[in-house]
Structures are given as C-alpha cells and as structure tokens.
Amino acid sequence: MQLLTLPPSPALATSIRATAQVFEDPKSQALLDHIQQVAPSEASVLIIGETGTGKELVARHIHNLSARRNRPFVAVNCGAFSESLVEAELFGHEKGAFTGALVAKAGWFEEADGGTLFLDEIGDLPMAIQVKLLRVLQEREVVRLGSRKSIP
User: Fold this and answer.
1) Which residues lie closer than 8 Å to 101 by C-beta, 6 or more apart?
2) Burial of 63 by CB count in 10 Å (0-12 exposed, 13-18 middle, 19+ buried)?
3) Which of the two ends of the chain, N or C, has the fewest CB atoms closer than 10 A to its terminal CB?
4) Contact (CB, 8 A) for 72 and 113
C-alpha cells in the first residue's frame, strides 16, 4: 500500500478533508510517478476525469511539487460563471470595457501571478471563450477585455 502524506501546512493542504492520498493499485502509482515527472516542467497539464475523481487534488499535488509551489494556487470552476461575465472573470477587463466596468480588474490568469491556475469544467465554457483560452495557453499571455495590450 502507498501512503502519500501531503504537507502539514494548511496553506499547502489539498483540501480541508484530504491530507493524505491512500492507494495500492498500479494505476494510481503510475499516476503518482507521472505527476512527479511533469511537476518540474513549465508545461500546461490537462487533467481528465469525472466529477469527484480528484482532479483538483492532482493539480494541487503537481503545484506543490513544482517550482511554483510558493506562488498562488488558484482554482476556478468555469461552470459557475454566467456567459455574460465569464470573459471578464477569466481574462480581466479595463475600465469602461462594458457597462458597469467602473475600474480595471485583473482576471484569474493575472491572479495566479506565476503560480498555478486550475480551471475546472472548461467544457462548460462557451466555444468562443474556449478558443480564447487556447490562445492564452499557446502564447502564455492574456489580453484584458477592452484592451489591446498583452500581459505575460
């Protein structure tokens, strides 16, 4: 049986409920080995799984093993945004970009600030936003709504 104990710090714990992952099957061990290989890289990681299978736990473990461990870990449920606000929430917006945008606001990409941004339920995003998300992942820069200036 494999017992993986996560860091004791509440700031680094994977969730309030989970402070250790316990498993003994070969597939889980292979997943852990893969996580340890990918964590040191700067590559974007796609984590696939049904609801409740521990995708966020895996993302947090990758983050804790990476050079980004001392930077923020930001978890965002993309299914929680209304279609009218999702672009501004993810990418940020400039003052006056839309009715009610009285001040400029950083989006979730900027909030991650060199750390890890975990986007859950990206399949719930409108297709146009998924295309913009792909561009952000490829170019490693974001453009706020109402701006033409790229932010790395």
Assistant:
1) 88, 93, 94, 95, 145, 146
2) buried
3) N
4) yes
Q: What DSSP assignment string belongs to 38-94?
A: HTTS---------TTS-HHHHHHHHHHHSTTTTS-EEEEEGGGS-TTTHHHHHH-B-
User: pTM of this prediction?
Assistant: 0.81
- What are the phi and psi torsion angles at 119 (to 5°)? -100, 110
Ordered structural domains, the chain, with CATH: 1-70 (no CATH), 71-152 (3.40.50.300)
For residues 91 and 148, give the distance between their C-alpha atoms in angstroms, rounded to a whole number. Answer: 12
